[in-house]
Amino acid sequence: MGLKSWVVPQDKIFFELFEEQAEIVCEAADHLQTIFTDYTDIPEKYRQMKDLEHRGDAMAHRVYEELNRTFITPIEPEEISRLATALDDVIDFIDSGTNMLLIYEIEQPDEFMVEFASVIRQAAEEIRTGVAGLRTLNDPETITGCCIEINRLENQADDILSKALQNLFKTKDPVRIIKLKDIYEHFEIATDKCEDVADVFASILIRHT
Amino acid sequence: MGLKSWVVPQDKIFFELFEEQAEIVCEAADHLQTIFTDYTDIPEKYRQMKDLEHRGDAMAHRVYEELNRTFITPIEPEEISRLATALDDVIDFIDSGTNMLLIYEIEQPDEFMVEFASVIRQAAEEIRTGVAGLRTLNDPETITGCCIEINRLENQADDILSKALQNLFKTKDPVRIIKLKDIYEHFEIATDKCEDVADVFASILIRHT
Amino acid sequence: MGLKSWVVPQDKIFFELFEEQAEIVCEAADHLQTIFTDYTDIPEKYRQMKDLEHRGDAMAHRVYEELNRTFITPIEPEEISRLATALDDVIDFIDSGTNMLLIYEIEQPDEFMVEFASVIRQAAEEIRTGVAGLRTLNDPETITGCCIEINRLENQADDILSKALQNLFKTKDPVRIIKLKDIYEHFEIATDKCEDVADVFASILIRHT
How confident is the model at residue A72, as a pLDDT? Predict the structure, then answer.
């Protein structure tokens, strides 16, 4: 039995909020790529990232508030809450990784950061597609495809991290190692959080299709 | 529909256990502030923290045991288990952050540690208020207020961490950086765990008010 | 009421998959001990670990797929999914800790790594026993015993970590500190993930016995 038949207008709010969250995920991932392409004015560009993070936060809180208000929800309340949290976590780790460029006064991004940004951007796109598919759930194959692709991208991020660390420890400069290791790990965790989003997608598919 | 009407005496045990857990959270947060105010005799003071951590552990296990015994629970078994775990996590991260003062042989706390301790102490108080409110759930606004305040404090801890790291990397002493970064991060995670407690509060409010 | 009465043949697949996952946990833990006993040919030995990790991944995905296919499951779908994830996480952290031996070009394991491997191996055995007990749930005491033992082992891993860090910081070599701290922490997290498995055991016992 599909979900479509019993979705009533008032419930659409959740899909709209998730779509806005996914949109912010994409904008944050885009912005990260922009930062690495034109690595100037980092404090100003970080302020823009922080704005996205605040918009993401506000959106997640609107989901929790709506859950308080809505008696019947289209998806299980727990899944709604897990999805809002997971989407928010993706944004948070893109934000905190970017913040570290500033805190650690990184003068130039390296090839590994650029690779992470590209993987995150691709995963963000899959998240947008997957979230859009939740509205009707009439094409579970597309959502399953997003989950598989996000998993593949997360594995790719693991490999980038291994490669980046192996390269980093050649430098023998401990302070530099501490800084870059922390940045790489934050971006890698951003892709783990994308995988959490995919896990909620999978769990919604299990229950509702 | 409020919860009050169907709470039967045998179920009160959960509220009592949560209140004892919240009490230990407050005692641990207090003890952390005491340690930083009078930074002497750290091994002995850490033993007292470890005692609190063991009392917290024992209390969390009593919750799980009671869940095994009790057929009908006032709140969903899952929420009871999540709340006990989240409260225990707060205590664990206060404990492990404190333990690092000892492991890393920190000779003096710095202003950032003192700020973290103050934020943790305030969040602990909100947790105590929130837990007390669960018993009757007849004042959801107070619990919502605790959630908002804990979220604010968690954001404040994020800012302290940024500031602390920025300051730390001026020292150029890598071993010192590794040690203090680890301590700061543990205290920051303690406030993340306070936010997990607030998330369970919010989810209990959704279901039961 | 026990679970046994309503387990139908088609549901046995989950127990079989969990037993295979627990088997891989044991093999990975064994392999880690072998690596430390005969610390040669690490790239080749790591390839074998990675094979185990891939087998573990495939098994976890089969659980999720079966959940998609099976209408009635013996245990709650959520617990099935949490257990598969927790077992997979144990394997992942054994794998990633081992991977770091390679990335960081560790020339010799130390006594702490050997102690971690021993604790992980013992916890893996408890996991195997606990998973085997899930099939009929007619001996809850045994599973409870596994949970207690896994908790004890996790505490032991905490103590090994404290001792290992205290020892490590005597070296004053920051790059070495960064590398070994990371490896120790990964093995300690592997035991945290064993505790997550035990938490799912406990939660299954709560609902089904």
Answer: 65
Give the whole-number percent of chain A exceeding pLDDT 90. Answer: 66
Domains in chain C, CATH or no CATH each: 8-208 (1.20.58.220)
The confidence score (pLDDT) of residue B64 equals 78
The residues in B 142-171 lying below 8 A from A, measured between CB atoms, are 162, 165-166, 169
Measure CB to CB from residue A175 to each of B174, B203, B207 and give the nearest one.
B174
B159, B161, B166, B206, best to mutate vs chain A, most A CBs in 10 Å:
B206
Interchain CB contact of C174 with A (< 8 Å)? yes
Query: Binning pLDDT at 50, 70 and 90, where does residue A73 land?
Result: low
Average pLDDT, chain B: 88
Higher-pLDDT residue of A135 and C31 is C31
For B64, the closest of C172, C202, C207 (CB atoms) is: C202
Residue C206, chain B, CB below 8 Å: the answer is yes
Q: Which amino acid is at A25?
A: V
**Each residue of C80-101: pLDDT tens digit?**
888 998 999 999 999 999 999 9
